[in-house]
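Researcher: We are triaging several targets before committing to wet-lab work. For this one, the compound of interest is 6-O-phosphono-alpha-D-glucopyranose. I'm pasting the protein sequence and the ligand SMILES. What I need is the predicted three-dimensional arrangement of the protein with the ligand bound, expressed as structure tokens, so it can go straight into our comparison scripts without reformatting.
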Amino acid sequence: MDIDIGNALDAVAGPGVPRDSLDRLDGRVAEAHERIDRGMADDEFGYAALNLPERVDTAAIRDAVAPLTDAETVLTIGIGGSALGAATLTDALETDGDAYYLDNVDPAQTSALLADLDLESTALNVVSRSGTTAETLANFLVVREVYEDRGVDWTEHTLVTTGESGNLRDLADEHDLPVLPVPDGVPGRFSALSTVGLASAAILGVDVESVVTGARAERESLSGSLYETPAYAYGAITYALNARGASANVVMPYHESLETYAEWYAQLSAESLGKAGLGQTPVRALGATDQHSQLQLYRAGPNDKLVTFVHARDGPDVDIPDAELEGLDYLDGASLGELRDAEFEATEASLADVGLPNVRVEIERVDAAAIGGLLYGMEAATVLAGELYGVETFTQPAVEWGKEVARDLLRGGDPLDETTSLRVTRE
Ligand SMILES: O=P(O)(O)OC[C@H]1O[C@H](O)[C@H](O)[C@@H](O)[C@@H]1O
């Protein structure tokens, strides 16, 4: 993963970071790196995530999924960090079959998905670190019943990825289901490079070993200077821009297959850094599609955001057939990839032109190793940013609050008095 932060400096952008401020920030990066290094060495909660490339046992994952690799479809049931890492991998990389995710509670979506699913050729991967998450357990119970109703033995098709205790562990024990353990000390949103993120991809034939190899290379690049560590350059620049007024970070990959990556990053950043009145609002965008809509705001609206482009230098391409269409002569001899890249560079320049800070995250191509590196790099960037903000990167009390209230309501608890209604209806 390479990072180009030139368009985030004050020579180009406003808000922008002066070069001498960046040099001073580099001193704080060195201190933060020492803290991170110590946390990694002691396998402290959260910091342990950055050791996953060394610790994850891909052979054990391969063994656990072996009975399911004939499946043509994998249905992963999980939510948040227990779905987004896997979905990022299976959406970005070539797979031997289809990957579906039940990571929401939407009765319409659940019934539509199940109606069309051939259960005999579908493997289920039920993922919950805590093993108690209401959405995941509820979806699993619904899916299980559909298998039973159609006379298919769900226990033959199910793998569970969970912790040592919890409802999901109890269900797995009761039905003697194969279980992959979740890693110790790793919050869900940092678990993409573990059993949690890799198992569904492995069932579908993704080269998970290369994902880990790519992550390991990024781990080895961690150093005490942002100028030598792409991950830290990104974490530091997002922090410095946020402090100067870039309250949002628009993450805009220029590859359809990386759309889910932007979603994964949004959880990672928002849940890790949104604390004590701090944090940058992550916004998901997709190039070139959103050039034809959101770009209007990014270029002509308020300069209150950073745009992060994610781009692969190389990849498959398709020639555009010559058609000699009037006014479209510039397409003659071009390819879809060249058109996409020209649009990307033009958008980057158009934002720099109006002083909107933007950063280029570049990978060689969208392949297993590069995606492993990208995910690891962004996790390290987020941990570094957490140190600079001085927040508790690895907790999520605000998320827990909402979960508890929802549970209370389901148990028949008192109506909520935190909200006020001013309902407007048509006459
Ligand atoms: O893996 P689970 O325990 O089911 O948790 C799934 C998700 O639930 C919560 O909302 C947490 O805040 C997320 O970080 C987590 O990834």
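Researcher: Any quick observations?
Model: The longest strand covers residues 305-312.
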